[in-house]
Structure formats: structure tokens, C-alpha cells
Amino acid sequence: MKYGGENNKDGIVKWMKNPTAPKQAEVELPWSEIENDVVHLTTETFDSFISSNPSVLVMFYAPWCGHCKKMKPEYEEAASILKQDKVEGMLAAVDATKEKDLGDKYNVKGFPTVKYFQNSEEAWDFNERTASKIVEFMKDPQEPPPPPPPEPAWQDIVSEVHHLTDDTFKPFLKKKKHTLVMFYAPWCGHCKKAKPEFASAAEKLKDEPKIAYAAVDCTTHTTTCGEHDVNGYPTFKYFNYGKNSMKYTGGREEVDFLNFMKDPQNSLTSPPAATPSPAIFWSDAPGHEHLHHLSDQNFDIFVKAHRSVLVLFYASWCGHCKALRPAYAEAGAILKEIGNEGVLATVDASQERSLSGKYEIRNGQFESDYNKGRKTGDLVAFMKSRLGEGQEKWSDTPSKVFHLTKETFSDFLSQRSNVLVMFYAPWCPHCKKAKPEYQAAAEVLSQDTNNKYLAAVDCTDTQDLCLQQDVSGYPTFKFYRHGHAVVEYDGSRSKDDFIEYMKKQETDKIGDETVTSGEFMANVKQEL
């Protein structure tokens, strides 16, 4: 049997517990076959449609294009709004992988390309991709402002930085006693920030004949970058007459580049400046006493002891880290004040090397990268959302799903022969998506006389129980027969799929007594 699990540790372990053949990939219907208000055009229909409609927006797309897939629902929504509001304009689409002649005719070079046609003529390109912007434009089509001119290539900007190629790299370095080379990529944000500082340092030392600041564009000169093990941008390396290369890891401001090149040999061998302890680094940030400073010794213990932890991995020399200090400390204080169970912690990644490759930890396991805003309100809102604060508990919503706890789990399952249990977390987006389908299936199954039940367990309230049941991700579905886990359900998560799965399970004729979820919850309360 061919391996059908995910290519990671957890996926392999999960698959070995229940080996199954890989699922066949679902065939995606062509967009033109899905009912919507977008008009799908071909080479045969394009000209007649454009000539008969005075205002048309056309999206040229490719079925495999990720940006196109993201834009499709926005485009469909805009088409529906325009139809509902009786706006004269029409939205159309062309699969440019099939209608190649149309793509060539209108110079389509990438996907999606959106063009506006007015009175049968191509007018201009349109670059917005949200429903609201599309509707706004179609209600009053106006030529958009021209795009900003492209940023000039660094080598085209006059400076004292020497731009080297695969051919000139070695000959140039052989002639200079001290050369600091910046290996970069034009699109790299950190590179863009370092460029003016690097160029300013080069300007200050331009009269020093033995010193040079050089740069190599690794997107163009791949051979040189490969030879020097460049695997991230920017990478700085020092060369002495083209030999004895050493990686530069100092600061990226003008003064840092200047000080280094004034005495490169000693700069490379001198001990680094003392790093302030976490207590000192955070001491001037109001609210710092509510932050938890972690190390390799206490990290695992701490995150397992707390329900929700946001960890900031920082370096004391990092400008962004310094800028974040006040907001991060204040957010920690606010969470403490409002009684939120989430806590904020820090790790000095420059000192705790064994932890620097890890990310946020929740309930002892990696949960997610934080990629929201960096203001106090953003941090507080994020931590509230992770715990589902302010949201109604699923168990408080009337339904035919039986909500089990540590106290009721074993008794409920042991008395029933066909139970599917959904182990979930309130903050889990996949769980939120599955809940209404699961509830709808439970409603249908509650009318079945063959005693089939759908239950749920909130793993944020019953962590020990979920660990005992080998729950390693959310949602996890397990089928139980008389209290014993028979198999893990890994099918689709629609109402019909849940119902079909439960009906396929053999019914164990033991005379289960049918009860309603309301009766069950009443019994639970009496037992408690």
C-alpha cells in the first residue's frame, strides 16, 4: 500500500495507527460550470459579447493560479451585487489557458489580468481584487492613476558600492585588502533597509584605496552566491584579498559598517558586547513585571502549565524588538488585569540558542505564528481570540450534539454502540467550519431508530482526557463502540458525509435506550 499520510512526524504517527490508501484528489469543476453571475467567454463568444455590452470588466485567469482562486469569490460576489443593483456593467471571465488566442491578443502576461472594455474597445487595466472595489469601479468607471514607476535597480543608482557579477567577483576582490560584500535579493525587505546604510558607509570611506564595499545580486549571479553558501538575505561576508572569507554578523547601520571596516581583523575576533539580561532589557517598559522570561530550562514546563502562551523571540540588538517592548509589556499587564488566561512570555533568542528555532507554544505544542499588528490593542485582541473569549460556548447552543466532559465521557460511550466524537478547540478555524455541518448531521441522526450519536469534547476544558484519547490536532474525530475507540474518522466534514459514515457502521443490537440531548444534559446535571 502506498503511504497516504502527511509528510511530517505527526502525520506519519497518525497514519501508522490507521494505515489507509491515499485518497484520490477531488476533481475541481471548471469555473464556467459553477453557477454564478459571471459571464464566461470563449474565443467564439468574446467579440459579440463585448460589442453588445458597453461596459464590461474581463478577468483573464488560469485554473491553477492561486491569486485567481483567491479572487474568484470576490469577483462572483461583485457580479451578484451589480445584478441586484441593476448596474449596467457586466463581469466576464476568460480561461486564458484554453483561450490562448484571446490571451495573446490582449497581451496577457500573468494571472489574473483584469481589463476594462468600454463601447467595444479595450480601455485600461484594472488592478483591484475585492468585491467592494470592483463594484465601486463598475458603478462609475474611471481610468485609474498610472502605476508608480518601477524602482531602479541598485546597480543603476550612483554610489560608492561596487556591484559585482559572476565574472568580476574574484578579480575585483583580489585587488582589495579589505572588502565587505553584501549578498542580496532586490525583493528582500531587510536588504532594502540596509542598502542606504551600506552605501553611506561606502561614501565615507571612498578615499581609502585598500577598502571596498561591494554587493552581489543573488537573483542574477547565482554561481557566486552558491559558491559562498548564501542561503538568506542579506548575507554579509568579509574578504582579505579575496581569501579568508568570514561572515559579518554585526549591526546594519552606517556606523556599524564603518567601525567594522576601520579594523576588520580585530572586529571579527573581538568578543561581542555584553548582552543585557532579560530583566534589564525589559526593565524600562511599563508593565514588564507581567511578562515571563523563559529559558531552555523552564520553557517546556511553563508552556504546559498555561492554557495559552504568546512567546516573543527577540534579540537585544534588534530595532524592531526594541520598538515592540512598550506595547508587549502593556499588553501583558492588561491581560493580567482583565483576568484573561493567556500570558505573554519572552525568549532571548541570541542567548537561548536551542530555543531560537521554535515558535509559539500552546498547551505544550506549537500552535501558530503571530502575524497580526504590534500595538497593545492588537496583542490583547489576539490573546482574547485564541481563548474564544466573548464567544458563546458550543455546549450552550441547543442541538442534538452531546457535549461530553471528563466526568461523563466514559459512561456515555460505554452505554452506546455507535458514537462519533469530535474533539475540538473553540479557537480552531477548521472546527468552527465543521460545527454547523456536524450539528446538522446530529439532527438527522437523532431521528434514526438505530441509535447513532454524535458527541463533542472541548479539549481546552478537558486537556487530560484529550491526551488520553491520543488527540494531537483539531478537530479529531473518533468512532467509539461501547466505550472503545474503533477507528479515527478522516473523511470529509459535510453533513451528508457524517450521516453516510454513521449509517455504514454496523449496529450492535444491545437495546440501547434512545435519549435526547436535553435529557442527557439533565441527567449529567443530576449526577453532578
From TrEMBL:
Top-level taxonomic group: Eukaryota
Record InterPro entries: PDI, PDI_a_PDIR, Thioredoxin-like_sf, Thioredoxin_CS, Thioredoxin_domain
Annotated signal peptide: none
GO cellular component, one term: endoplasmic reticulum
Coiled-coil blocks: none
GO molecular function terms attached to this record: protein disulfide isomerase activity
Record family assignment: Belongs to the protein disulfide isomerase family.
Record-given protein name: Thioredoxin domain-containing protein
Organism name: Paralvinella palmiformis
Taxonomic path: Eukaryota, Metazoa, Spiralia, Lophotrochozoa, Annelida
